[in-house]
Known about the structure:
Elements: E1 4-9, E2 17-23, E3 30-37, H1 41-49, H2 57-83, E4 90-95, E5 98-103, E6 108-112, H3 115-122, E7 126-128, H4 132-136, H5 146-153, E8 159-164, E9 167-173, E10 183-189, H6 192-202, H7 211-214, H8 220-227, H9 230-233, H10 247-254, H11 261-283, E11 290-293, H12 300-310, E12 315-317, H13 328-341, H14 349-352, E13 362-364
Parallel strand pairs: 1-4, 4-7, 8-11, 11-12
Antiparallel strand pairs: 1-2, 2-3, 5-6, 7-13, 8-9, 9-10
Amino acid sequence: MAELFIGLMSGTSLDGVDAVLADFAAPRPTLRAHVHRGFAPELRAELLRLQAESGDELHRAAVAAQHLARAYAATIEDLLLHAGVEAGAVRAAGVHGQTVRHRPDAGYTLQLNAPALIAELTGIDVVADFRSRDIAAGGQGAPLVPAFHAAVFAVDAPRAVVNIGGIANVTGVPARGYAAPIIGFDCGPGNVLLDAWIGACLNEPFDRDGRWAAAGTVDGALLAELLAEPYFAAPPPKSTGRDLFNLDWLQRRLHGRLVDARDVQATLAQLTSTTIGQAIATHVPQAQDVVVCGGGAYNPTLMAPLADACAPRPVVGSAALGVAPEHVEALAFAWLARAHLRGEAGNLPAVTGARGARVLGARYPAG
Ligand SMILES: Nc1ncnc2c1ncn2[C@@H]1O[C@H](COP(=O)(O)OP(=O)(O)O)[C@@H](O)[C@H]1O
Ligand SMILES: [Mg+2]
């Protein structure tokens, strides 16, 4: 008998929402459908503005949350239509929401969402607010995907899984059957600076296939300055977001330098690759290979230096292992919604730094 869950992820990149419908009846979930829906330009722009201090934030955040929830509900409708599945057949939808502030240091992380509205619009139970309980227990509230990475990608040898979204996070997956702890942390920027820089220079949302970066050359002095950011050397548990890695962060380091815009882009691609490679070498040295998921897997100008940075370990896109890069995070939130319904913990204290394992999220029943 099918055990259907929906997962919705809209990450730091602000590229829109990835939604999956998956069946968890077997030990390894099977994908029934995937839908990606881009954000309307006005919504994206407002979500971007809400990432930093600005006027009348409370009202604007509440209004944006409703627009977001309507976009999420429409995405769920598309997904069900696509799969030919009725809402009543779905146990629950795990909806991450849109992070606009991530400040575990100040005791909070803020994901805009309106789960009650999604439940009302779709007739499906919604599980949301996955991060706050981990923070309440003294953790970072992030990353939450390592347990899922381990559940799906474990093999007979230890491996690293890297999600290159707006922010990049690394999971150290022990060999199957070994009691070694799962390691996980945000290692730094994934696509967020690449997207921000091409946005500022060419008004493009992202550097398709890394073509612009490929036209530039890495600037060694700039790279060294970027790598001096203390976040990279800080030990886990650690997590980050646009709060730290944003256009301002980059522009402060570009100040007074004459670097061609394409060379900046090439340097940012190298920064992402180098910091991921260093994170694996330092914290997951036993990894025999590296699995890449998230949108960054589609950027060859990121993947080529990543292969060099991880050598001699082979670097493979998650698609080669049967899960498309854009499905992984959304599947993880379907999996976390299921864990909530089963009363199972979703966090890994060794990853987030929480005092203990906790059931994550809150459920908004459909009726
Ligand atoms: N064909 C591509 N070429 C280059 N970059 C891409 C491509 N496809 C996706 N990306 C990058 O992936 C990002 C989206 O990745 P995603 O995993 O959805 O991140 P997030 O979870 O932060 O939303 C885009 O903003 C873009 O930077
Ligand atoms: Mg995304």
